[in-house]
Each structure stands twice: as structure tokens, then as C-alpha cells.
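INFO batch 0412 | record 1 of 1 | parsing
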Amino acid sequence: MKTEELISTATALMAGDKGLLAMDESTGTCNKRFAEAGIPQTVEYRRAYRELIVTTPNLGNCLSGAILYDETIYQSTKKGMLFIDILKKAGIIPGIKVDEGAVNMAGFPGEKVTEGLDGLRQRLEKYYDLGARFAKWRAVIIINEDTPTKANIEANMHLLARYAGLCQENGIVPIVEPEVLMDGDHSIKRCQKVTEKVLKALFKQLEKQRVDLRGIILKPNMVLPGLKNTKQASINKVAKATVNTLLKCVPPIVPGIAFLSGGQSPELATAHLNAMHVNYKGKLPWALTFSFARAIQQPAMDLWKGDDKNVKAAQKVLYKRASLNNAARRGEYTPDMEQEENPKLTVMSQKVIG
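INFO prediction complete | emitting C-alpha cells
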């Protein structure tokens, strides 16, 4: 195992105030978002949109890594330059989504289990040769009256650990993503309890599979009430519940945690990350950053609409959204920055009031 390379990559991914961009939407997910935005659902429009992202000027100032999809890792600009080469030139480490999606778990109605282990060793070898240095696998945990079951949690965490072991064998840092979904009307307390169970099960499985925790990145959900819950939590309450859960469950040896946004609005996801840094500065044993998809991309996609004349404006919006999350990682984000031209240049510390 390439231990030193794994540790070096994980450290680089968590460096400074940067974060990760999840641009690994499957063809189905990307087409769904295009349909909602009124964009034609074709391979050329998907390519054009991804070109918009990777050619955004100075994006390397904001991002340490970008997670790609299998289709994307082979795509090029209209001028023939591979996206993966553009990212590397910008100082952004390329990563790759390797799971093959969540399917119904046999015998457990309403629960999902992730597929993709078959042939994974060979795929990882190929992706490493292409230049990918980290990967991602997402497990989906659903909260309702009867779920999650212990069996579902254990099955998903076992698969995550096996994936992580295969990644490390091939010199690729595994991002382990156990997502407790926001769907539903559950309370923040229920989300915290389930997230704790999931994380404890995950690290137990990682230990069993002899995964080196110095060479992984955790990509968890924030601890939030369900979207349908009428009692939503304050920004500070979410920050407290999330950080306390992580401190209880995540070993200090893990180099970093990069949150998914999970359906939060861009502004709320940024505010929650900021509150964690403001309120827990100097108290966190691991780096804490973002690995957002929609919470960075959606405003740019909505502005682009598939029209070439909107590319520059959309890139400006994309860069600004990423910059705001850089500020949040520094604990310097304020809502007023949403209206500023270049928030990355603004240095301001302010307590978050929840």
C-alpha cells in the first residue's frame, strides 16, 4: 500500500481554506437537474456544462479537489483539452465517483444498499492511471418510523469499508460518504442519534477491514431536522449537534471531514459550516471543510441555462459560491457577503447568532 502517497493526498485535499467540488452527478441525476432548469438532456450539453465548471478562472484558489463521474473523466473541452488535465494544471486534485448507485435492499422494504464492488479493483487501477488520486462511495441511510435497521446500517458500512480498502490498495484516497438523508419529518435529535449509530458502525468496519484512517476523508451529512419537520433548527444548534456528534464518533487520526450539503440551500450550507468554525475554533482535531454539489453549482446552472452567452456570468457565480465557502471554512462568512462582488477578498470575523 502506498501509505505516504495516501497521507500526502489526504493532507493536500484538506489544505488551507479550500474544499471539494462534487461534480460527479450520474447521467440520470444530471439529466434530471437539466430538465428542471430547462436545459436539453444530451451528452453534449453535459460536456458543455462541465467545461464551464473546469474552465472557471482561478477555481484552484477555492478548491483542492473535484470529484468526477466516469463520463466526465474522459471528456475534453471543445479545443480538445482533457478536463482532468485542466484541473491538475489549476492545482485541483481529480477524484472519481466509483459506486454504482443505491438499490432496494432485499428483505428490507424502504431501505437502500449501494452497489459497485464487482470489478472495482480493476476500475481503480484504470482511474489511477488516468490521474485520479481520490475516490467517492455514497451510502444512503433513510430515516422514517421503521428505519434505519441495524442490518441496513451494517451492510452499507461494510461495503464502504471494503471499498476504502480497495482504494488504498491502489494508492487512491477513499472518501467515505455515509449520508443520513434529510428527507422526512424527523427531529434534529433523531438525526443526531442515527448519525451517531452510522458513524460508529462505519469506523468499526473500517478497523475490521484494516483501512488506514490517516489516508481517508469522511464525507458525512450535517445533523439536521428533516425537511418536512415544522420545527427547523437554528444555525448554532445545527453546528453544535453536528460537531458534538463528530467529536464523539470520529477518531482524531482522520485528517479531514468534508460535508455534503444534502439538499440544503447554498446559503444555509455555507452558514452552518461557518458556525462550526466560529464556535469551535481551535477545538477540532481534524480539518473541517465542504464537498458540496448543488450548494455550489445550482446558482451557476440556473444562470447558464445551456446558453453559451451566459458562460462567463455563470462562471463568476460559481467562483463566488466557492469563495463564500472558503470564507466559511475560515469562520469569516457573513450573510452580507452574498451581495459582495468578490467575497474571497473580504476578511471579517463575526459571531454567528442562531
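INFO post-check: The first strand starts at residue 19 and ends at 22.
INFO record closed
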